[in-house]
Amino acid sequence: METEPSRRWWQASTVALLALILAGPGAMAAEPAGLLRDFPRGQLVLETRGPRCLLIRIHIAASPQQRSQGLMFIESMDEFEGMYFGYDEPVGIAMWMKNTPLPLDMLFIRADRTIASIARNTVPLSTERIESQEAVIGVLELNAGFARRWGVEAGTRVYLDTGY
Length: 164
Known about the structure:
Elements (H helix, E strand, L loop, with lengths): L3 H20 L17 E8 L3 E10 L2 H6 L11 E11 L2 E2 L8 E6 L5 E5 L10 E2 L4 E8 L2 H5 L6 E5 L3
Parallel strand pairs: 2-3
Antiparallel strand pairs: 1-2, 1-9, 3-8, 4-7, 5-6, 5-8
């Protein structure tokens, strides 16, 4: 004999499953933007020629786990949004795009807060290593094409306010 609470549970479960099926295949996956919920937030300014100052809202990969996750599974970002990986002292950096469906520009930042180099239009989902050309203290990941669209190049000054 079925009890009233178990009948309500089955009804609710059936309705939830039907809603997921009708919503389509992507609805059963975790919401990608939710993966960044626990990342500290901050902002930085890129001072390009002109001079023009571009304010970027950033997610900060502050812990080893967050550095490992980065933008994996993130499918889109706003034009002036990015991910910042910071290091206490200059180091050689090697990254890849495994599980990252979003093509990116990777800006490698020197200790003097200028851009050392840019890896443009990285290949989504690739395991090819993307390396800084010198020791750097940070990497800023932005949508692919951002550097070209906004005149960001080697030597561009970076003003960082991590706020955490």
